[in-house]
Amino acid sequence: MSRDIALLQARIGYYFADEALLVRALTHTSFANEQKTGRIGSNERLEFLGDSVLSLTVCSYLYNTYPELPEGRLTVLRKNLVCQRALAEYAAKIELGAYLLLGKGEEKDGREKPKLLEDAFEALLGAMYLDCGELSRVAEFVLPFVKAELFKMQSELLPLEDYKTLLQQYVQQMPGEELRYETIGETGPDNAKRFTVRVLINSNEFGKGTGTSKKEAEQRAACEALKRYLPR
What pTM was computed for the model? Predict the structure, then answer.
């Protein structure tokens, strides 16, 4: 195991003062249970910490890099950069799955499971932060992954006013969620009508908008939904 740890540290360009933290970050619950250490011996607590470390690091970078973007757009970018798919890809780039400590039931295909890779990557960030105590050092490690992902997304960046597409992109990340718009009101004469539209995700209303056309009303409803629907 010591050889594996050395190889991984060389790969990530960070050497732990406390290697026990790294071992803990690599320990899946299934392995911890087999070793009779229980969940407290797994990487779950480090994953919890790493999730917050990652979120703060990415939010800070986006806030400073894109001063012109509104909150809703920044939130969509953040969600794309720290979603399970992205984190699993970050983990795969450093071959993190090869170093995981897994129970017998997970050994067959667990090293390639996106969920396990996501959790392990976050745990690694949590361990790194506890080891060095510096967010800047964690950012030095993780931001190259984030920047590469942003570069891939550049061709997909849309006009800031296209809230409908932004909302659609976010909802598409969650299988089973259905997005639709419903006109609920029309007022005024034919040459000066105003439309009111609501946006629903499944059967729940998340925003309303009013405009001189249905398209404008839908955009405003989507903007409202982005403010309310996306977690902070």
Answer: 0.68
Rounded Cα distance, 141 and 26, in Å: 17
Residue of 53, 109, 44 lying closest to 82 (CA atoms): 53
What is the per-residue pLDDT across 107-121, written as a single tens digit (0 to 9) for each? Answer: 777 688 899 999 999
Q: Is 134 exposed, middle or buried (0-12, 13-18, 19+ CB in 10 A)?
A: exposed
CA distances 64 to 58, 98, 135, 158, 227, Å, are: 10, 35, 16, 19, 20
For residue range 188-224, what is the model confidence (pLDDT) as tens digits? 888 888 999 999 998 889 999 998 889 889 988 988 8
- State the first-to-last Cα distance of the chain, in angstroms, to the nearest integer: 39
β-pair partners for 27: 101
Going edge to edge, which strands form the sheet with 204-211?
Answer: 179-187, 194-201, 204-211
Q: Any idea which residues carry the catalytic annotation?
A: 51, 122
